[in-house]
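quick q for whoever's on today - can somebody do inverse folding on this one?? i tried earlier but teh output was garbage lol. tokens:
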């Protein structure tokens, strides 16, 4: 007899999500707004035409409330992936719960805002929320509360929401924001070939026994225990506006959202990775000098030590108990002919943990709107890195990512782009050097 449990799993999730949305609408009395978008996105490698990403998405956003006393917001995402991976007839028949047609429902955000609560000069937000701090463009060393969403690796700046309590006090000279997150959420990683590039800095530093290779090892993660002492995070930020500039100072205590190798087990060929604790002190600014927008931010990291345990060998440090700093600065300008230019310099990328793993980066982007903004051309968009200034010719990386976006009608845009990756030595772009790709995205908003 056919097991229909997996067959009905997605419709049941859809039913409960729609029930939640409808209930919220019924209880909300003022200013109900529903919007969202439909999107399809596909990526294919240039060398062997392998389809690395094929996704269709329906995104629904609901906001309601009188926005004087309270407001609520929710975002739900329905996803279906276009590729099927199975060698089992029973999976094609729906006989196994895992199924063979990937997809699902994701509650991205769902929170309640209470204004002037509990005091007239404070606001309070509770629920699942995306908390992004910092002033730089997409790469923010001071933004560590919401974990990185790296499922499409070169789409930097995407984050996952966390279940949090957030309160903000509005003072005459400065604002104070306090955040408490009771549960730990790790970063969402890209497909296997891309994930290995993120961990390459640690893998290359491992001292393995003669003749031992990590090829074929299974990677497992060790999440923190669910008690509040181990899983919770908290952060505070003091922000102000002075002389035309936004300024802030922040403190974060929690864990890295990317894992570090902790134990290698030879008999069963398993690498166990852990999420170390870390304290981070940061600051940022943003403003303009004339018509040039400028920004910058930096953070000092104080990690806990992580030792790698390999049977038969002395333990070695994967992450040292020593401080290190990551920082970024940038500017942008729009010329009279409409050409927009954006550039940033960065020391330390988001996956580079520890002082000895930090590299230097430069990003540069030029874009131009044409045909009354129906067409946006990005002929120059690249990031370059140097991992060793003593020998830059053999220690560099380059990612070139041009794009063309066409808007045939209002609220519809189609984007064709590519990513050409190259490098030498040990760096992120070198590790991705065989994954040049084309991508096509189409989105209709409502």
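ok took a stab at it. sequence:
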């Amino acid at each position: 007899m056919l097991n229909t449990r997996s067959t009905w799993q997605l419709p049941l999730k859809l039913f409960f999500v729609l029930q939640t949305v409808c209930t919220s609408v019924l209880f909300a009395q003022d200013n109900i707004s529903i919007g969202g978008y439909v999107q399809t996105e596909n990526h294919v490698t240039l060398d062997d035409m392998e389809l690395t990403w094929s996704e269709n998405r329906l995104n629904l956003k609901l906001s309601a409330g009188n926005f004087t006393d309270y407001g609520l917001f929710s975002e739900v995402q329905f996803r279906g992936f276009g590729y099927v991976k199975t060698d089992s007839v029973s999976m094609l028949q729906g006989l196994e719960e895992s199924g063979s047609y990937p997809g699902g429902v994701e509650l991205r955000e769902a929170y309640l805002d209470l204004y002037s609560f509990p005091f007239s000069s404070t606001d309070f937000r509770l629920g699942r929320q995306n908390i992004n701090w910092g002033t730089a463009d997409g790469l923010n060393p001071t933004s560590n509360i919401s974990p990185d969403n790296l499922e499409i690796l070169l789409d930097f700046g995407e984050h996952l929401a966390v279940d949090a309590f957030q309160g903000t006090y509005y003072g005459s000279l400065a604002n104070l924001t306090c955040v408490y997150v009771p549960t730990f959420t790790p970063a969402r990683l890209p497909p296997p070939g891309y994930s290995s590039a993120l961990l390459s800095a640690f893998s290359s530093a491992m001292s393995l026994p003669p003749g031992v290779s990590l090829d074929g090892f299974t990677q497992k993660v060790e999440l923190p225990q669910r008690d509040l002492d181990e899983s919770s995070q908290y952060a505070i930020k003091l922000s102000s506006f002075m002389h035309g500039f936004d300024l802030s100072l922040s403190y974060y205590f929690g864990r890295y959202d990317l894992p570090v190798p902790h134990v290698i087990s030879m008999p069963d060929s398993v690498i166990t990775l852990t999420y170390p604790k870390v304290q981070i002190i940061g600051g940022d600014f943003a403003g303009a000098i004339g018509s040039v927008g400028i920004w910058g931010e930096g953070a000092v990291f104080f990690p806990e030590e992580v030792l790698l345990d390999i049977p038969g060998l002395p333990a070695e440090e994967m992450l040292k108990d020593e401080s290190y700093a990551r920082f970024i600065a940038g500017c942008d300008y729009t010329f009279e002919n409409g050409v927009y230019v954006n550039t940033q310099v960065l020391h330390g990328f988001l996956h580079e943990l520890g002082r000895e793993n930090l590299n230097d980066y430069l990003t540069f982007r030029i874009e131009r709107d044409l045909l009354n903004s129906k067409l946006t051309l990005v002929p120059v968009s690249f990031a370059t890195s140097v991992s060793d200034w003593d020998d830059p010719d053999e220690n560099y990386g380059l990612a070139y990512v041009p794009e063309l976006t066409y808007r045939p009608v209002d609220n519809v845009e189609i984007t064709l782009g590519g990513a050409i990756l190259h490098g030498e030595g040990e760096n992120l772009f070198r590790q991705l050097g065989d994954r040049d790709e084309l991508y096509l995205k189409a989105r209709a908003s409502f």
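fwiw The first strand starts at residue 33 and ends at 45. also The radius of gyration is 23 Å. so keep that in mind when u check it
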